[in-house]
Write a structure and sequence with these properties.
Distance between the termini: 22 Å
Order of helices and strands: EEEEEEEEE
Mean pLDDT: 95
Largest sheet: 9 strands, antiparallel
Length: about 120
C-alpha cells in the first residue's frame, strides 16, 4: 500500500477488528484470552508489524527474544511485572516499550485495546 493509513482514536483502521488468536493457550497463567485484532501494516520481510489488539483479562509470561514492542493503550488496563518484581500499570493514553529478551508478566486487568509496533530481527 502506498498511501497514508489512518487509525481512529479507537485504534481501528481500514478494517474492523476481527477475532484472532495470538496468545498460545499453553502460555496463559490465569484467565481466558478472548482476542480481537487487525494488522494495519506489515513489512515485506515480516520484521515490522503495526496493528491493533484487544483482549479480555488474562495473564501470561511474555518476551520477544529477537524483537522490541512499542504499544500505546487505547482503552482498558494492563500491568507488566518486571524481572525485578516491580509492577508498571498502563491505562488509556499511556505507552510502554518492551526491549528485546525482557521477560515480563503481562496481565490484562480490564479488557484492553492497544496499538502496537513490533520490530523483530529477521
Amino acid at each position: 500500500m502506498s498511501k497514508v493509513i489512518k487509525l481512529g482514536r479507537d485504534g481501528v483502521g481500514l478494517n474492523a477488528l476481527e477475532t484472532c488468536s495470538v496468545v498460545p493457550a499453553v502460555a496463559i497463567l490465569a484467565g481466558f484470552a478472548e482476542e480481537m485484532g487487525d494488522v494495519h501494516f506489515e513489512s515485506a520481510d515480516g520484521s515490522l508489524v503495526i496493528g491493533t489488539w484487544q483482549c479480555t483479562p488474562y495473564a501470561e509470561m511474555l518476551a520477544y527474544p529477537n524483537g522490541t514492542e512499542y504499544a500505546v493503550i487505547v482503552s482498558g488496563k494492563v500491568a507488566l511485572t518486571n524481572p525485578d518484581g516491580s509492577v508498571e500499570t498502563f491505562g488509556p493514553g499511556e505507552s510502554y516499550i518492551l526491549p528485546p529478551a525482557t521477560e515480563v508478566r503481562f496481565e490484562v486487568l480490564e479488557t484492553m485495546r492497544k496499538i502496537y509496533v513490533l520490530q523483530t530481527a529477521q
